[in-house]
């Protein structure tokens, strides 16, 4: 039944041009194999293309996770070996593994591949060697054999000889992941003829519906010369000149969500790679084409970067997102495709949305330049900046609290933030006053932070070796939903003469924005406004940790899990990670009653949501059953503190003493011996 349905397509008569190796009847075992798979639909009608919810390309990298239909284009430099004869099996196997994994996740994967010419060249050279006599073989050096050229049809003959072997290799690799493949060969004429284009579209949709990975290539054995970029009706289209244009045309025709073009370059540069001032573009906006200078094409490809960009822009205009990335780098080949789909910062992402502000690389450059000026200021000048920031926290209090109120309302309405995190997110007039006081203290105490001589050694007469404090450079501080962290860290960076990149939690976006504006306003006192930058783009923390040539130190402020994640992600940048600590308060039997009550209350009740709030209260055994102990308990009970008693305490307490009020914070009472202060 399935076979007969597949044979009723109106245009399938003798073997199709794009399926030259198959007769239509040979689909029977293929369909029988696929019918057992869970993704196969029993209906035999041609499915409609999957419509994207937004109807246009993705605006940001983070949206690439939503891509369902993906076209992966493998350039000649990716598929072939360095000697341009034969395939790079290791890279190809890694790519197949990634494509199969995404296919098994429920995505619809298509591959536009090169490599038939290289595969056929290897086979034909082997045939030439076998056809020689023994004498010819002995006198023919390797270079002579390598330079032997076939007639004008060498490339076409190589493609004809290598296409079947290339497809057999793909089939063998995908079989290891229980994934079926299908071969489709096309030419430019297949897209110019409406009937053939509809048949191609129908065949591809049927294959995708049966969870089969189509592997598409140009039919180089019979391909005609490329035509101008217009069809028979004069409508501007892209002509199939190479696999870049083929992948773009196919992606638009199939309404793919994402086109991943893999080549031997990291992505799109603003000038030819290898030049001193060449910079890799993370995101490319079509309006910036005039600022790009192109180099030569790859060693084995037909097109160059200019052809890739033109094809990418054509696909982008048709509603398909495009990423150009390196598929030959040994360190990233094993996960380059999956990283792109996960939205990580790999290659160049083409977007129709112009970036609202500078990229994180540009922000880092600006911070480093201004940071050098900041480090050269006098200590009194850096203190003036900190004093100005402290004054702004008081003067702009209403604006800060208004922005913080928006963040709180959004967090409360979302319902995903626990009460303790809400308390950390919240700012109050008293907290702002405390911040201002703390900043003024930093301004006073940090006069000798930079340029202080720590050690001096006389090496020889008139030769001294000095150890002097100097700024580290550019710091990246990553903090969670604690906006009060921003002015504190900013003041410390200013005092130490360091440039600063700040990456805060999105929960405090409005508060962080206003506080960063105040920090830059204070820095403007001495024209170093750009020394502190707020990374407010959609950059992932893992992507920031890869800027090892731009960032000198990463300081994570948050949970231990955040610290571990950043330490794992930052391969080439030092991370100042804190270790697990304790939050204990010990009360000795000779301690002052007034000081004990003030310290215990302040350490727990003043700001319970703080990460350094008291968790355990240790008391000397002689304090038990004393007025001091009773006053501590009464004070904590008044503050609605919940008690968890330890066994030694419980054994010395009356039964009614174990029944305490339940509140939102926790204190554990332990005993120490008369000789040991902590147990």
Automatic annotation (TrEMBL):
GO molecular function, one term: glutamate-5-semialdehyde dehydrogenase activity
Protein's pathway: Amino-acid biosynthesis; L-proline biosynthesis; L-glutamate 5-semialdehyde from L-glutamate: step 2/2; Amino-acid biosynthesis; L-proline biosynthesis; L-glutamate 5-semialdehyde from L-glutamate: step 1/2
GO biological process, one term: L-proline biosynthetic process
GO cellular component: mitochondrion
Record InterPro entries: AceGlu_kinase-like_sf, Ald_DH/histidinol_DH, Ald_DH_C, Ald_DH_N, Aldehyde_DH_dom, Asp/Glu/Uridylate_kinase, G5K_ProBA, Glu/AcGlu_kinase
Reaction(s) catalysed (UniProt annotation): L-glutamate 5-semialdehyde + phosphate + NADP(+) = L-glutamyl 5-phosphate + NADPH + H(+); L-glutamate + ATP = L-glutamyl 5-phosphate + ADP
Keywords of the record: Amino-acid biosynthesis, ATP-binding, Kinase, Multifunctional enzyme, NADP, Nucleotide-binding, Oxidoreductase, Proline biosynthesis, Transferase
One Pfam family from the record: Aldedh
EC number, UniProt record: 2.7.2.11, 1.2.1.41
Domain Aldehyde dehydrogenase: 359-625
Domain Aspartate/glutamate/uridylate kinase: start-end pairs: 68-326
Keyword Kinase found: yes
Sequence similarity: In the C-terminal section; belongs to the gamma-glutamyl phosphate reductase family. In the N-terminal section; belongs to the glutamate 5-kinase family.
Listed name of the protein: Delta-1-pyrroline-5-carboxylate synthase
């Amino acid at each position: 039944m399935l076979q007969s349905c597949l044979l009723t397509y109106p245009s399938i008569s003798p073997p199709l041009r794009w399926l030259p190796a198959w007769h239509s009847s040979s689909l029977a075992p293929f369909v029988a194999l696929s019918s057992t798979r869970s993704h196969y639909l029993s209906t035999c009608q041609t499915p409609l293309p999957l419509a994207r919810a937004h109807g246009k390309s993705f605006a940001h990298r983070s949206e690439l996770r939503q891509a369902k239909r993906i076209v992966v284009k493998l350039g000649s430099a990716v598929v072939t070996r360095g000697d341009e004869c034969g395939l790079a099996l290791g890279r190809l196997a890694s790519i197949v593994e990634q494509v199969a994994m995404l296919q098994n996740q429920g995505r619809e994967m298509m591959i536009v591949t090169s490599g038939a010419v290289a595969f056929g060249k290897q086979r034909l050279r082997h045939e030439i060697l076998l056809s020689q006599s023994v004498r010819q073989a002995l006198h023919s050096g390797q270079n002579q054999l390598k330079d032997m050229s076939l007639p004008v049809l060498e490339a076409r003959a190589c493609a004809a000889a290598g296409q079947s072997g290339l497809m057999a290799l793909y089939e063998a690799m995908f079989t290891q992941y229980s994934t079926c493949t299908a071969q489709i060969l096309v030419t430019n004429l297949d897209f110019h003829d409406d009937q053939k284009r509809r048949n191609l579209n129908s065949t591809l949709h049927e294959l995708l519906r049966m969870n089969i990975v189509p592997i598409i290539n140009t039919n180089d054995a019979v391909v005609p010369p490329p035509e101008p970029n217009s069809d028979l009706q004069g409508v501007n289209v892209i002509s199939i000149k190479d696999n870049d244009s083929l992948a773009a045309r196919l992606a638009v025709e199939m309404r793919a969500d994402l086109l991943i073009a893999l080549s031997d370059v990291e992505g799109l540069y603003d000038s030819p790679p290898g030049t001193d001032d060449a910079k890799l573009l993370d995101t490319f906006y079509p309006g910036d084409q005039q600022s790009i200078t192109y180099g030569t094409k790859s060693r084995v490809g037909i097109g160059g970067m200019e052809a890739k960009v033109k094809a990418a822009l054509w696909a982008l205009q048709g509603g398909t997102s495009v990423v150009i990335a390196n598929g030959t780098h040994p360190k990233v080949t094993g996960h380059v495709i999956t990283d792109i789909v996960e939205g990580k910062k790999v290659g160049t992402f083409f977007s129709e949305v112009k970036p609202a502000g500078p990229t994180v690389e540009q922000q880092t450059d600006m911070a480093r330049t201004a940071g050098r000026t900041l480090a050269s200021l006098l200590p009194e000048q850096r203190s003036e900046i900190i004093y100005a920031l402290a004054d702004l926290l008081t003067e702009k209090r209403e604006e800060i609290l208004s922005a913080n109120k928006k963040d709180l309302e959004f967090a409360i309405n979302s319902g995903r933030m626990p009460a303790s995190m809400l308390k950390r997110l919240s700012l109050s007039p008293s907290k702002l006053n405390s911040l201002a006081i703390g900043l003024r203290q930093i301004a006073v105490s940090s006069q000798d932070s930079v340029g202080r001589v720590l050690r001096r050694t006389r090496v020889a007469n008139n030769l001294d070796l000095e150890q002097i404090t100097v700024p580290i450079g550019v710091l990246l501080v990553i903090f969670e939903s604690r906006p009060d962290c921003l002015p504190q860290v900013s003041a410390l960076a200013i005092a130490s003469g360091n440039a600063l990149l700040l990456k805060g939690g999105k929960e405090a976006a409005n508060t962080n924005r206003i506080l960063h504006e105040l920090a830059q306003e204070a820095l403007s006192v001495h024209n170093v406004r750009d020394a502190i930058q707020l990374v407010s783009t959609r950059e992932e923390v893992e992507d920031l940790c890869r800027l090892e040539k731009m960032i000198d130190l990463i300081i994570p402020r948050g949970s231990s899990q955040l610290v571990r994640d950043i330490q794992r992600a930052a391969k080439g940048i030092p991370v100042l990670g804190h270790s697990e600590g304790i939050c204990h308060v010990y009360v000795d039997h000779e301690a002052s009653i007034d000081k004990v009550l003030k310290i215990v209350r302040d350490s727990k009740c003043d700001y319970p949501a703080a990460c350094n709030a008291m968790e355990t209260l240790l008391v000397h055994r002689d304090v038990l059953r004393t007025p001091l102990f009773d006053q501590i308990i009464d004070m904590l009970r008044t503050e609605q503190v919940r008690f968890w008693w330890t066994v030694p305490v419980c054994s010395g307490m009356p039964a009614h003493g174990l029944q305490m009020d339940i509140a939102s914070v926790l204190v554990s009472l332990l005993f120490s011996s008369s000789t040991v202060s902590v147990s």
